[in-house]
Amino acid sequence: MGFPADAKRRVTMHRMRFASSIVELIGNTPLVRVQRVAAHVAPTVLAKVEYLNPGGSVKDRVAIRMIEAAERDGRLRPGGTIVEPTSGNTGAGLALAAHGKGYRCVFVCPDRVSQDKRDVLRAYGAEVVICPSTVPRDHPDSYHSVSDRLVAEIDGAWKPDQYTNPDGPASHAATTGPEIWRDTDGRVTHFVTGLGTGGTLNGTGRFLKRMGPVRVIGAAPEGSVYAGGNGQGYLVEGIGQDFFPLTHDPAVPDEIVAVPDDETFAMTRRLARDEGLLVGGSSGAAMVAALRVAERLGPSDVVVVLLPDGGRGYLTKIFNDDWMTVHGFDVPAHAVTAA
Ligand code: PMP
């Protein structure tokens, strides 16, 4: 006799392991111990590797939460268009989360965003509009102004606005923070991350501080408003601003470390060579800040540093010797540092 046909299929299905959609694979990124790069400091330094998200960055978490909230309350309707000023990663997250839902995506990027990142957005099927990054925020050609104009012009357009949307920080309070607390068994003492919208630091930091006496440290490029500057004079992508976004809560960071581009880029290259972590520039900045803090700490401290994205989007920039030289940065020696 055997099983009825559908019962047999259920048993077979039960043994297979798969996600029913790519968005189910967002989050739950691992912690990995930083070895050589952190060999000179006493604490345990753990990197949270966000490039292992399916869209390649921490921004997948934010994108899916913003879209689902907008669908729930009717801001985003079937057939709608998602318009967002994005340096690339939020666009990739939004595009993959919009996957299969039939939304059109239009992303507005400042021209400092690398060609590789623009190509990734187009590969996901998005339209990309490029704007000058040298004009002020209120200039009609700024990427903020252009995105506002597009939202007004396109029927059914919705702008997630990662700089004001509370679902950004909320996504980190709901996922990134709890994952770090769980995976360190509550032993994390310091959390370090870069400041772009400020959402990662705000949401994750707020959650961790609720759980225990965790110190929260922001990494910001020298010249950005977070570091007391006017928003000019740095090349690192994804962090730094020329204004304070609403998603940033100045009450959450206990300390902000200003990191110059030369240290950021040297560290970014070192992470790839010495740790096998091919990450982007904001990860280098966060690691510089984390080590600066860790140098003051002891062996019982556990420093978690979040690495927001991978390095493949920067092969023609940070990882390119000519680009480094043209922009006045030393090309670091190729020697591997002994552990
Ligand atoms: N690094 C990269 C590469 C990013 O794209 C972003 C997001 N802009 C950040 C860091 C900063 O994260 P947040 O916006 O949460 O401050």
UniProtKB/TrEMBL annotation:
Gene3D superfamilies: 3.40.50.1100. SUPFAM superfamilies: Tryptophan synthase beta subunit-like PLP-dependent enzymes (SSF53686). Keywords: Pyridoxal phosphate. GO terms for molecular function: transferase activity, transferring alkyl or aryl (other than methyl) groups. Its cofactor is pyridoxal 5'-phosphate. GO terms for biological process: cysteine biosynthetic process from serine. Belongs to the cysteine synthase/cystathionine beta-synthase family. This is Cystathionine beta-synthase.
